[in-house]
Fold this protein.
Amino acid sequence: MKEIRSVKALHIITGLGVGGAEQQLRLLLRHMPMQCDVLTLTNPGPVAEGLRADGVRVVHLGMRGNRDLGALPRLVKFIRRGRYDLVHTHLYRACVYGRLAARLAGTAATVATEHSLGEGEIEGRPLSGGVRRLYLASERLGAATVAVSDTVAARLEAWGVPAARVHVVPNGIEAVRFRFDEGVRRATRARTGLPERAFVVGGVGRLVPGKRFDVLVRAVAALPGAHLLLAGDGPERAGLRRLAAELGAQSRIHLLGERDPLGDSADGRTPGIPALLAAMDVFVSPSREEAFGLAVVEALAAGLPVLHVTCPAIDDLPAAQAPGARRIGTGTEELVAALRGHMEAGARRLPPPPVVRRYDIARSARQLLDVYDLALSAAPGAAGAARGRPAADPVPGAGGAAVVGARREPVGPGPAEPTGTG
């Protein structure tokens, strides 16, 4: 088998807007020892810019929608010209198109990660029989499927994916970024207009119905003097703002928009997720369905007590792994009562629990490399051929694909498209 450091890998993802799967890809690539390029089917958004800053080559295929079948031959041509040893796909649309394109291009080692599979939805969209059948048909074209949690692995197996093909590689974080700092707390509160001694509740995520941030807005509105910091964007933002106004709490509900999970903006003026977590007193994840719950792990790394409805990253483990996390029901009244208890007890910071070490991104990267080894070993002919061929020249683009960024010499992004994650 080819030595892993000399492997050339292509990551195919549906889009590169701000999202958990997208940010996880960026973090993982920082710990990959081989050359990795990224191709996004749609939306070369903020994460594409971050990848370029990290020195990763990013290509935008310019796919127009789920049924843009003309994207398939362009994708096949790109993979073939790049002479990749391994293709790794992320998110539903990229998995369906990417696995088929890799097979047609002759790339024998194909891995897919299932980032966001719930009981009744996938990536925030309702599941249907057709979606499941298409997923299973394309899954057979790959060498391995990665699940981000035991919960997702069980769902895949219940769908009919053979257990031997499913490998759990949990999401990970760079815990040092979230280490609590009292000075950062004071500065962030001042920059966001929060009273120094206010009780601050926090939430992070896409503003979509499935995240149920309306419940969080109602709960904080019911606690006079409490403030809510909510980082994220999405179609529910205007509705949440209206709800806060209807409840007379608009001055205490702070909808911050998208924020960088890795740190403050380049000019230092806009606090990123680590700084916002430092400014909070308690973190809430009200979502009914999660595939992992990365934001909860980040909050625990920041020393925050956490209230969550569901979080496989925590729920799949013994309680001693995350003593600061408490599972609650879906009702608003229960959340209000839990928050009132924290408010009355006063702000307190907790030591990062053992679960934070478990979900270290470097550890996840090592586990993923083990999956790559298995996939490459299952394709000895392809690996052997790769071993003896000359290194491919940089591909300037293929069949209409626009180069968004290049290793060492990044260029500006191509035309933006609506974000697509399905």
